[in-house]
């Protein structure tokens, strides 16, 4: 964890009380991997940084994964780590070189600071930066805490009518923006989305805003499918006990004999990707967002003969967060309905228990800090 401690942070704002205890939700590691609400240091902002009084932080599947498994791929929790990367808060202090932000501003926090000098950063793909310091990805701490010191350039000022909760939801929304951009979803597109979890939901609202005319979503949960219809899915298919071929056939029927030209895999399940390959039209595009088993089988011969383009999609790059904010601020996308459960910071452990078990009716769990 960050070690430089500031005891006397400048107090100059009516919105925040800097005398508050800086509690953070810490994943203890690696031996016990328990959650603990602990007082963590407040780091004084450097010239280019701001101090944020965090207000809303969403729980993400990746946070839960670190809690239950202690790792995601090669990211291994080797020391105590503060969780959280879907956050928004109020500026409490600004470094002297910060422009465009002032004390009291509401901001959404894009949770990765890229190195800005590697070839990926220079090419405009900072989500591929090998040195990105990403919140709650070992060894970096997250923002599920009362005070968070952060790079001002990765903070997005929210207009007055956009709530801090919506600000926190820009993170998963930006994932949807990036995925739909990778797929090139646009006017009149027929889109298949496999997986109706939070990212599937975000892909639906973005695809709809981008002009997709048909959006079919598959999942194994009837309640999730019911919910995603309210977000704009035109049809849903419950895939329990069904093969990809079978589901692909039903997609075609529901699309009046047409295949989707864009498919977005958001489930992480091998069967989801298989369904995308079987359903997508020749020459179509499949974007894989869901993270599942590291090695998965696909019908490669089918994909090759159909000249499908299969693309990965990881987090979000330059402009994605800003575009996510524009979608919410303009009213083109409504993200608030995704929040099904709200907990206080003090109830974080309870919130994670619910997130771990999932269950009917759980989409996005929000912590109010
Ligand atoms: Zn997330
Ligand atoms: Zn870089």
From TrEMBL:
Keywords: Metal-binding, NAD, Oxidoreductase, Zinc. GO terms for molecular function: L-iditol 2-dehydrogenase (NAD+) activity; zinc ion binding. Coiled coil: none annotated. Its cofactor is Zn(2+). Residues 32-367 form the Enoyl reductase (ER) domain. GO terms for biological process: sorbitol catabolic process. SUPFAM superfamilies: GroES-like, NAD(P)-binding Rossmann-fold domains. Belongs to the zinc-containing alcohol dehydrogenase family. This is Enoyl reductase (ER) domain-containing protein. It comes from Rhizophlyctis rosea. The lineage of its organism: Eukaryota, Fungi, Fungi incertae sedis, Chytridiomycota, Chytridiomycota incertae sedis.
């Amino acid at each position: 964890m960050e070690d430089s401690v500031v005891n006397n942070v400048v107090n100059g704002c009516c919105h925040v009380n800097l005398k508050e205890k800086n509690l953070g939700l810490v994943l203890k590691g690696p031996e016990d991997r328990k959650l603990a609400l602990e007082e963590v240091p407040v780091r004084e902002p450097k010239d280019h940084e701001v101090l944020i009084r965090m207000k809303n932080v969403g729980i993400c599947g990746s946070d839960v994964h670190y809690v239950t498994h202690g790792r995601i791929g090669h990211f291994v929790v080797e020391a105590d780590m503060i969780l959280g990367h879907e956050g928004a808060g109020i500026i409490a202090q600004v470094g002297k070189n910060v422009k465009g932000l002032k004390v009291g501003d509401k901001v959404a926090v894009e949770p990765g600071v890229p190195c800005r000098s590697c070839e990926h950063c220079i090419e405009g793909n900072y989500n591929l930066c090998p040195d990105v310091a990403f919140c709650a990805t070992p060894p970096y701490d997250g923002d599920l805490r009362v005070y968070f010191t952060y790079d001002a350039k990765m903070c997005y000022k929210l207009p007055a009518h956009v709530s801090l909760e919506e600000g926190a939801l820009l993170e998963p929304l930006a994932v949807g923006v990036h995925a739909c951009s990778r797929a090139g979803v646009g006017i009149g597109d027929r889109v298949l989305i496999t997986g109706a979890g939070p990212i599937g939901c975000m892909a639906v609202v973005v695809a709809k805003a981008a002009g997709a005319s048909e959006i079919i979503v598959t999942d194994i949960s009837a309640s999730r499918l019911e919910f995603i219809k309210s977000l704009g899915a035109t049809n849903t298919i419950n895939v329990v006990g069904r093969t990809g071929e079978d589901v692909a056939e039903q997609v075609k029927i529901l699309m009046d004999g047409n295949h989707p030209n864009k498919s977005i895999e958001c489930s992480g399940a091998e069967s989801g990707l298989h369904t995308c390959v079987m359903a997508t039209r020749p020459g179509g595009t499949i974007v894989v967002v869901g993270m599942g088993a590291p090695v998965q089988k696909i019908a490669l011969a089918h994909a090759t003969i159909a000249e499908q383009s299969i693309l990965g999609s990881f987090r979000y790059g330059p402009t994605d967060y800003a575009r996510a904010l524009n979608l919410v601020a303009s009213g083109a996308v409504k993200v608030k309905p995704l929040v099904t459960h709200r907990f206080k910071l003090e109830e974080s452990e309870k919130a994670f228990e619910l997130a771990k078990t999932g269950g009917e009716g759980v989409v996005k769990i929000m912590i109010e800090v």
